[in-house]
Amino acid sequence: MNISGILKSNLVHWIEPEKEIDTEKRQRPKWVEKSFDVKTINGNEELFITAHGCYEAYINNRRVGDFIFAPGTSEYEKELYVQRYSVADLLREGKNTIKVLLGDGWYRSAAGVTGARNLFGTHIGLLAWISSKDSIIVKTDGTWETYQHPEIVSSDMCQGEVIDCYRTIQEDRKHVYEKEYSFNNLRFADNPHIVEKERFKGKQIKTPSGKTVIDFGQNIAGYVQMTFNAKAGQKIVLIHGETLDENGEFTIENFQPGERHKEGGIFQKIEYIAHDGQNTYKPHFSIFGFRYCLIETDISLEDSVFEAIAVYSDMEETASFESSDEKLNTLFKNAMWSMKGNFCDVPTDCPTRERAGWTGDAGIFVNTGLYLMDCRKIYEKWLASCRANQYKSGAVRNIAPRNNEESFFGKMLASSAGWGDAIIIVTYTLYKRYGDKAIIEENYEAMKKWLMFLRKRAKKGFVKKLLSGSRDSFYDVTSGLDYGEWAEPDVEFASGVDMKGKSGVATAYLSYSAKLLAEMADVIGMHEDAKAFSKINQGAKKAYQHRFISNGIIESDRQKDYVRPIAFGLLEERDISVNAKKLNDLVEKMDYHLNTGFLSTPFLCSVLAENGYVETAYKLLLQKTKPSWLYEVSQGATTVWETWDGKASQNHYSYGAICEWLIEGVCGLKYTFDELVLKPLPSKQLQYARVSYKSPKGVITVGWHYEDDKCLYSVELPDGLSGKLIKPNGEKITIKEKCTCEL
Ligand code: BGC
User: Fold this and answer.
1) Pairing state of beta strands 250-251 and 212-230?
2) 351 lines ligand 1 (CB under 6 A)
3) How many whole angstroms separate alpha carbon 607 and alpha carbon 584?
4) Ligand 1 within 6 A of 312 CB?
5) I need a surface site. Which of 30, 178, 194, 599 has the fewest CB within 10 A?
């Protein structure tokens, strides 16, 4: 019997604690509770549980599991995850009580791009049962009781919590309401839980205008645990922000919620009214992006303790990097922290403004992410949301799971190349890392639909193309809307948006994605498809050349226009070196500054270095004035910024994708499931660089250092893994176990 059958035959029901509520108003979190008898404990008792909203479950007053914001985020109507906990240790023979606190969570908080509430529904609810051997010993149904949380007045994921420990409410218990929802969306999966991780003790500072601010020293996503002594009724307000302004004052200006935000702003605020004596509090259903907290209170903070707790999906760190340049080392750490701050069940753009699983960002970062932390399951889960979210046309919604209401522009931008392509890029990167064909099979139809959607965009204007007499333009995408390169320095965000494939981004991605999909189709035996995709790859390549390359030469003052075609293989072999030189000249002319945006920045250094301009690549990498990666480090950043000037989000992992080049380029460690290529690109601009990566086959450590003019490369490989070393002079050597050789 399937899950739906089991639940129906055992009369397990969804229960809701609320009936008629003002859905415009935030509600108090609710407890739902049930007492039940257990005759004998067998040791295999398990709690199965999920919610509309988020839940915290307790059995006999002991917390079940460590999952914060359970059941996580997903495209709830299509896939709602059920957690499974072994609970024998929490139960006792005789009378037991299970109680569950329900909060708004992603289900009905203002936790998305537009701050719209009630995105998935207006009523929180619970579905749970405890099984023992083959029987169910307790289950959600109309016999459960409910009461409001006595202290928490409201709890929103993004806006924060209001807690009143002075005017607590005590109300009679009521029965919950049984509700019928389909069980078809229920999924069982062992996704990593979101958990509490590192803690940072706060330091109190006074700003020039006399405001009290706590500095935790690290920008994170999480919340604050505070302990202080107060008199009943005294109030403390905490506002969480990422940065101080140029005058040293606390600011949340950089969240830039824009006019679209339904609540007029992103507040990240805790309002707490104290009880007498010692108070200790941390939020239940809120998470913020912050390094600083502005404190407003008349409570004496003398003996207070403020501790920031980083909260993210439970992933192991799998890479470390070190070089002779401290700032570069900080950049690597900052990328790791931006990853931690954005991997809250799915990869998101930032933990403050939008908190959204943007496709483009995921595609840009996936290869880096898979090196930095063990995040395979997070991407796999995210891909499931992309599939669930895809339009019939093949267009891929920009954000998965969806986190705002459908809008006219949102729908149009679902055609965006570089963003929709993430469904192919992420799948391909996962396959190359782990060699598991299942990931291709699972996503194959969705990837194909996306590619055909892009292909269709290229077919628009066919007659015009025919009349123009050029068969080469048949694969040119000259319709639709794209984000374009996005977030280039000195280009206004909005003017970066690309109409009718003007910049060629879409044609370039049509070719690139077709190449990746052709390779994947062959892997799963879809050889006819592979041929068709290869044809698209070649067709779009010709179309790109036709429009943007004249006599083998690209003319542009934007680096992206060289980087993308070289990285995606859109040039004829013979034309690469002249255009790489033009890119190098352009970078030199800009005094070794970049002018790329989201899509081509990850490829910039590798395109230069692979084509003979290693020194230029290092100069860009080590550049300290803006726009550059180390400018923000020089400004004291502890995470990676969204924009090169730091005026927007301070915690966007996207530009952290440079770590891919630190690992694969600088240190030369390129790992795929079937091959380890060691191709270091040393430069005397650093004295040494080394990286360690805990690969699926064991820990790989490589690095080089200079001894006078000699550059020595050390390699340490796990048992059974060999690597192909390609020296800068082209010499090739097979390496096993351990060695140090001259480069
Ligand atoms: C997000 C990005 C995203 C972009 C789409 C921004 O507001 O923060 O990371 O990819 O919109 O263009």
Assistant:
1) unpaired
2) no
3) 10
4) no
5) 178
Given a contact cutoff of 8 angstroms between Cβ atoms, the answer to whether 680 and 702 are in contact is yes
Which residues in 415-514 belong to E strands, given as ranges?
Answer: 481-482, 498-499
**Residue-level pLDDT at 612:** 96
Helix (H, G, I), strand (E, B), or coil: what is residue 74? coil
Task: Order the strands of the 145-148 sheet from edge to edge.
Answer: 62-63, 54-59, 94-103, 30-38, 145-148, 174-175
| SS3 category, 77 | coil
Q: Is 360 in the pocket of ligand 1 (CB under 6 A)?
A: yes
The yes-or-no verdict on residue 505 having pLDDT over 80 is: yes
pLDDT tens string 105-132: 999 999 889 999 999 999 999 999 999 9
Question: Rounded distance, CA 434 to CA 697, Å?
Answer: 10
Q: What is the mean pLDDT of residues 631-644?
A: 96
Give me the residues paired with residue 692 across strands. Answer: 320, 701
CA of 358 to the centre of ligand 1 (A): 7
Give the predicted TM-score (pTM) of the model.
0.97
Is the C-beta atom of 255 inside 6 A of ligand 1?
A: no
Rounded CA gap, 670 and 35, in Å?
Answer: 56
Q: Which residue's CA is minimally distant from atom 8 of ligand 1? A: 349
pLDDT in tens, 403-417: 988 888 878 888 899
Q: Which atom, in ligand 1's list, is nearest to the CA of 358? A: 10
> For ligand 1, is residue 486 a contact (CB within 6 Å)?
yes
Q: Whose CA is nearest to atom 9 of ligand 1?
A: 349
Atom of ligand 1 lying closest to residue 652 CA: 9
Nearest Cα neighbor of 480 from 456, 462, 496, 452 is: 456
Annotate 366-385 with DSSP letters as a single string. Answer: HHHHHHHB--HHHHHHHHHH
Q: Please state, in angstroms and rounded to a whole number, the distance separating the CA atoms of residues 649 and 645.
A: 10
Q: Is the pLDDT of residue 231 over 90?
A: yes
With H, G, I as helix, E, B as strand and everything else as coil, classify residue 605.
helix
Is pLDDT above 90 for 133? no
Query: How much is the mean pLDDT over the chain?
Result: 95
Specify the residue with its C-alpha closest to ligand 1, atom 11. Answer: 358
**CA nearest 304: which of 374, 219, 364, 238?**
238
Which amino acid, one-letter code, is at 682?
Answer: P
In DSSP terms, 320 is beta-bridged to 692
**H or E segment at 86?**
strand 80-86
Rounded Cα gap, residues 517 and 424, in angstroms:
7
Distance CA 684, CA 116 (A): 52
Within 8 A by CB and 6+ apart from 421, the residues are 363, 450, 454, 509, 512, 513
CA distance 269 to 263: 13
